[in-house]
């Protein structure tokens, strides 16, 4: 009987060691995984002053596709897509940087 209980105890210690080792491996992998960054996709209607207006660049802001859209009477506006990191860039910042714009669409991604 003592031999069996000693064998069970050794197995449970081995199982405990294995479990702790696997848990440590999991925590290590989890720690290396980058944190999820909240982002939004924003579609802006931009009405620049002229054809030489600079495009804004900022950390957390990526400009995407753009197109000229007729407004009326031969006037066109620039419609531009961008992706922002929510903690770094918001629509209020974009509105400050761009003199005349309307928010056409806003989607969390």
From TrEMBL:
InterPro entries: eEF-1beta-like_sf, EF-1_beta_acid_region_euk, EF1B_bsu/dsu, EF1B_bsu/dsu_GNE, Transl_elong_EF1B/ribsomal_bS6. The keyword Protein biosynthesis applies. GO terms for molecular function: guanyl-nucleotide exchange factor activity; translation elongation factor activity. Pfam families: EF-1_beta_acid, EF1_GNE. GO terms for cellular component: cytosol; eukaryotic translation elongation factor 1 complex. Residues 39-109 form the Translation elongation factor EF1B beta/delta subunit guanine nucleotide exchange domain. Keywords: Elongation factor, Protein biosynthesis. Belongs to the EF-1-beta/EF-1-delta family. This is Translation elongation factor EF1B beta/delta subunit guanine nucleotide exchange domain-containing protein.
């Amino acid at each position: 009987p003592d031999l069996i209980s000693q064998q069970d105890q050794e197995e449970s210690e081995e199982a405990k060691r294995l479990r702790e080792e696997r848990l440590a491996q999991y925590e290590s992998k989890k720690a290396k995984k980058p944190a999820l960054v909240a982002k939004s996709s924003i579609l802006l209607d931009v009405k620049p002053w002229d054809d030489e207006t600079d495009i804004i660049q900022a950390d957390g802001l990526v400009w995407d596709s753009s197109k000229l859209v007729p407004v009326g009477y031969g006037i066109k506006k620039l419609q531009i897509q961008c992706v922002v990191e929510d903690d770094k860039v918001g629509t209020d910042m974009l509105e400050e940087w761009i003199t005349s714009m309307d928010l056409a669409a806003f989607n969390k991604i």
